Amino acid sequence: MSKAVRRRRPPASLAVAVDLVIFTVRNGRLQVLLIERGNLPYRGEAALPGGFVRDGEALGAAARRELREETGVGGGSLHLEQLHAYGEPGRDPRGRIISIAYLAFGPDLPVPQAGTDASAAHWIPVSSVLDGQITLAFDHEEILRDGLERVRSQIEHTTIAAAFCKEPFTIADLRQIYEAVWGVPLDPSNFRRKVMKTEGFVVPIGERRSPDIGRPAALFRRGLAKTLTPPLTRLGSIAQLLADDEKLT
Amino acid sequence: MSKAVRRRRPPASLAVAVDLVIFTVRNGRLQVLLIERGNLPYRGEAALPGGFVRDGEALGAAARRELREETGVGGGSLHLEQLHAYGEPGRDPRGRIISIAYLAFGPDLPVPQAGTDASAAHWIPVSSVLDGQITLAFDHEEILRDGLERVRSQIEHTTIAAAFCKEPFTIADLRQIYEAVWGVPLDPSNFRRKVMKTEGFVVPIGERRSPDIGRPAALFRRGLAKTLTPPLTRLGSIAQLLADDEKLT
DNA sequence: AGTCCTTTAGGTAAATCTGACCATAAGTCC
DNA sequence: GGACTTATGGTCAGATTTACCTAAAGGACT
Prior knowledge:
Chain A is of the alpha+beta class.
């Protein structure tokens, strides 16, 4: 076999799939949408939602389709971005499957109905996966970790945290997104000051909302800004955690 | 045909490729390695180096192999990271080709010899592509733009700028990387202070280098730190550019 | 040697930003 | 009303940034 031919021939049983890391914040915790697999391999185990890319279908379109099928939410209302491509030869026992992972998030979504394939979908706290209570099929735990690191980094210097909030929202709602994603408490006063001074992050709607308890809070909707200048660093909080760690050791 | 079967069947003539955006800084300008295509389609036009992923080959391994073939540089010495996956159905006239783009960069490399395929490789200033002097085959201009935005962002909060420098290097060498990638001049004194205060960014080698003119500069090598805390923002420079823009309008 | 030129190295003062903390406002619950 | 809770805004010391300034260390030239 000539080298040229070998390089041109696609590998046997090659397929391209998309997998979705769909995050939301519920009850103050970051949660991820997982399905219980209805088919082999890994039948009955937890996995990220996903599926094969169809003939002639763009990658992003396949991701939006799977997102709609799994969450019942229309395309435009959730933030969706490409995360990473995974293609280790042995990652799927069915053959050579290249998976393009996408990262999606939105406000606390209605509990998803069982998807079009007969598998049940559930919101699971990310911490349950990280501490080993739940194991995922394929290399999906690696994908989830990569998605978590991406979203933790993204909310530092973009305004996507607001995409987790159902409009209208309060500053406290937005702060709880950061606290859930980073896993650290933030000072309400300082957080508010930083958000308000970032032009175009949130725009006041002019109304107030009375919570169950406490002073009513002003309501906002998402602004036009996409990047945070200056960034909203988690460094201070992390330095605090590291200091705590040292005390313990 | 049942829906399940349709979803499982891979598209016709599916293939997976890797494309490389290889950057370096030469003569104070950011340059990218482009090849002149020797085969159809787009024969004779400029394109990013790349090739098909072989049977059983991991994506990163394919990228490293292409990098070695095109630059003659061994794997470990250049920084290599995955950029993005491109899969628009019509992006390649030969059929459905999913391309995983990788981003690589290193110090001013020897002018690459013609690769193993008969196509010539050249360093081209990125600006020549951005201002339309050179057009690229396929969707490679989009890939290049994405790679440029990635590297501009990465040097803000990681230490990868040092990967552009041949060791040992001076603080001025490192500063010129930032200036070339961001396209803005930086204050030498303030830049030095920020770099030196970031633990593990650069470590002094204890020697000095006499340039053609001026005071000898201390020499450094890359440190162990991967992230910059605090980040080295381009905001000040950008604010300056924006102010200039406003004056002009 | 002495002067000029260039680049590195390091310092300073004003402005800005940050983090910790306090005070007040505006509701609910009893 | 009084206790409690959350929102909002302010203060203040310390850190950081920015725009400069000054000195150091060479080479080139006269």
